[in-house]
Amino acid sequence: MHDWLFVDKGSLTRRLTALADGAFSVVPLEEGWQTLRDDECGALGVSNGSQGWVREVYLRGHLQPWVFARSVAARSALEQSGLDLQGLGSRSLGELRFSDRAFARGPLQACRYPA
User: Fold this and answer.
1) Which of 9, 31, 42, 53 has the largest CB neighbor count within 10 A?
2) Among 22, 11, 26, which Cα is nearest to 90's?
3) What angle do CA 60, 13, 69 make, to 5 degrees?
4) Euclidean distance between CA atoms 48 and 112, whole angstroms
5) Distance (Å, rounded) from C-alpha 73 to C-alpha 63?
6) How many Cβ atoms sit within 10 Å of the Cβ of residue 53?
7) Shortest CA distance to 58 belongs to which of 45, 44, 69?
8) Could you give the CA distance from residue 28 to residue 68 in angstroms, rounded to a whole number?
């Protein structure tokens, strides 16, 4: 699991899709502008209390949730990019990241997340 998340810099979405023999899906749980957590602000290099785009999803294989993912982006960076993340829907953020050079994946962080 460690290599999947931290060593391989390729698309996690593509690896999960292959593992699921194509039976992969993304289920958006929540997305929108929020005040970012202090650790997220630090990782993005913005002031504590900054606003950002937060997207929480389940990455599923064979209709089973395999990964809970929380992605964040600084509001200042997104406003300059002109990207419309609200229209992403059930499309994988990883798919967008690897098809649009405007995106760069930062370091992944793994933890146990409250239910």
Assistant:
1) 53
2) 26
3) 60
4) 23
5) 27
6) 21
7) 69
8) 10
18, two tokens: 């292959």
Q: In what order do the strands lie in the sheet with 51-61?
A: 24-35, 51-61, 64-74
Per-residue pLDDT 10s for the chain (115 aa) are 777 777 777 778 888 999 999 899 999 999 999 999 998 999 889 999 999 989 999 999 999 999 888 888 888 877 776 666 666 666 666 665 555 555 666 677 777 766 6
Pairing of strands 24-35, 51-61: antiparallel
Q: What is the pLDDT of residue 98?
A: 56
Residues in the chain: 115
Side chain identity at 106, as an amino acid letter?
Answer: G
pTM score of the predicted model: 0.76
